[in-house]
Amino acid sequence: MHLLMPKDNTWKKFLRDEVMDEFSIKKSQITSPDGLPILEIDEKTPLRKSYLGLALDILPETQTIPAGSIGEQSSLIVNLLKKSNISQTAYQVFSISNKYGVVTSGRSELLSQKLAKNLRKEGIKRGKFHFKDCPLIKACIYPDRSIKISILDKVKRQEYDHLLSPFPGGYTTITDDKQAPSRAFKKLVEAQLVLGNEIKEDETLVDLGACPGGWSYVALNQGAQVTSIDRSPLREDLMPKVNFSAEDAFKFMTEDGFDWVVSDIICTPDRILELIETWATPQKCKNFVFTIKFKGSDSYDILQSFKKKLHSLDYDCILRQLNVNKNEVMVMGTRI
Ligand SMILES: C[S@@+](CC[C@H](N)C(=O)[O-])C[C@H]1O[C@@H](n2cnc3c(N)ncnc32)[C@H](O)[C@@H]1O
């Protein structure tokens, strides 16, 4: 069984619609245990070849560990790993509850600690999530204390990579920064974490629709050379630090390529498809991060057009709603 995690219970019905569309399956083929913010679909569903914009995280091909003591459950997990011949693995353990959603404290923390100890004893090293060669385990403790566990060897991990979150159950919070000119700055911070690729010193970045400057602020703080495009200027203190151009971001063009092209422009989703068409070519940018903004709840089916487009690009792409997104989904890519 594959588990899919929407942002919360409110988003469950939209993710269900997306899943029905994406895999041409019926509502009755998707279950959701006890109203949890989780969808379960048949393991034969070709998840590895798909993008799901409204799934924050997935647990592919899960096995079930029955309820029991933490010691017993940890031993059962280690036995499964021994069978899978894994000598190193990254792992995430979380609980899921009707009331609180994803929780990483309490029982999940205890199981994580026990697992760490047992794995060490067996000589299985802990790896880091973003090492693509590293196998990955995601374990979700259900309210009845049974566990759904996904064990992905190196090959499977790479096949599902674009759908896997670096955060347990996809859930994280981004630390606030009172100096940032807008709360929107958090989107670019979380996007980098999800991409596993950060804006580096002296890299070039163009920020389309940049005012009041949250994203430019993040890039400047990371040492990038920033070009900011908006009809309105950024917050005053940022203006001398960026190369600002007051123009229509959709008409902006240069001969130079950029390390990063990012956009948080308020516009209809089809215009973001245009931006992908313009910018997502290897000569023009190494990485892109664009926000797709929705009005209301009846236009998520345009995500299908994004998926089609992403399959044709020479980029490792991620289409995903972030924790910090409201009625938005991010589309991101890193040149292969
Ligand atoms: C949500 S705000 C961006 C917030 C910014 N990312 C931040 O962190 O502060 C969207 C911006 O897009 C700009 N915008 C909308 N359409 C535009 C266009 N065609 N060309 C340039 N800027 C545009 C708006 O002026 C607005 O400042």
TrEMBL record:
InterPro entries assigned to the protein according to its UniProt record, in alphabetical order: RNA_MeTrfase_FtsJ_dom, SAM-dependent_MTases_sf
Ribosomal RNA methyltransferase FtsJ domain segment(s): 182-266
Signal peptide segment: none
A Pfam family assignment: FtsJ
Domain of life: Bacteria
Identification of the protein by name: Ribosomal RNA methyltransferase FtsJ domain-containing protein
Organism: Halobacteriovorax vibrionivorans
